[in-house]
Amino acid sequence: MAGIGSSNYWEDLRKQARQLENELDLKLVSFSKLCTSYSSSRDGRRGDTLDTTPLLNNSTQDRMFDTMSVEIEQLLAKLTGVNDKMAEYTNTPGTASLNAALMHTLQRHRDILQDYTHEFHKTKGNFLAIREREDLLGSVRKDIETYKTGSGVNNRRTELFLKEHEHLRKYVHISLASL
Question: Which residue in 10, 19, 26 sits closest to 106, CA to CA?
Fold first, then answer.
């Protein structure tokens, strides 16, 4: 890489920034699709029973979410570092004549970084809210299903006890009548 005083250094930094921005853009689109598919796959299950659909069938998506989050955070950190180097360059002696153009370019890269950071945090927050909501709803669904199946067993037991009680009552009634 060229020295900090040369225009090649600035161009190298701009190239790095554009490359990181393009990579971030692709990752953020994929990340958004992943988060959308997670909520869609959960929404499609509403009519299914818990016997046929596991509650946490999205563990692969959860791992992909975590992996992509780390990758995007690393890219954002790298882009922040490049922007910081660009800011240092604008303050070096000998760049005063180019300073307005350099500052405009630097501000544009800072705006892009801010937009990507905001988009990432918004998408991540939405995903976590959906996942938490689905986990809570899944827990409630499981409790309801457990109650229903448990009630069925209890109803059957109650029915058997009532039959036995009726038989005993008839037996006692017959036994008393024969006295």
Answer: 10
